[in-house]
Design goal:
four-stranded mixed β-sheet; globular; about 190 residues; five-stranded parallel β-sheet; 7 helices; alpha/beta; binds guanosine-5'-monophosphate; Rossmann fold
Length: about 190
Amino acid sequence: MQPGSLFIISGPSGAGKGTLVDRLVARVPRLWVSVSATTRLPRPGEVDGVDYVFLTPGEFERRVEAGEFLEWAEVHGNRYGTLRSTVEERLAEGVDVILEIDPQGAFQVKEQMPESVLVFITAPSLGELERRIRHRGAETDEQVRTRLETAERELRLVGTYDHVVENDDVVMATERLAGIVESHRPYEGCR
Ligand code: 5GP
């Protein structure tokens, strides 16, 4: 069986990665979204094992030392990482896998798996990013500022990605993302 492809989706906070990934999975069959581990506290409504695997800093460190992460990075003062085993199992089963991770993690994975596909999601402007982050209402002013600083830094990396999708309109952006995934799939009859 042909192994699945790995799609890595990054982009600044407020670009709408989560919404686009949800819509993508509803639109395109045979896609699996990896659930990351994090030391960040759950936001209201977030479920352990569904949105993230929530770990204490000590447990995260233990798993880093045990080599359980395909990649990990510190983002906005918390640690986030992709657990290696499930991703590798899904790819071996021929399922395409989506990682929604920050650029530090994206480049770590690309180095280990050069055939993986890097996709960067942007918003039309920094002002629009700020509006979306504030509208979400989950962060304090200080946290919003940190996220915007990170966003400015991340936007400079856009040219190093294989594909860029501007999320100006969620329906159109989902279509563009679906087109990227489908363009990396072998002819249906071969699967
Ligand atoms: P949030 O706290 O808003 O859920 O996520 C903050 C940032 O962490 C986002 O840019 C997200 O892409 C990134 N992130 C989430 N999971 C992972 C992961 O497993 N690895 C890395 N490197 N970044 C992640």
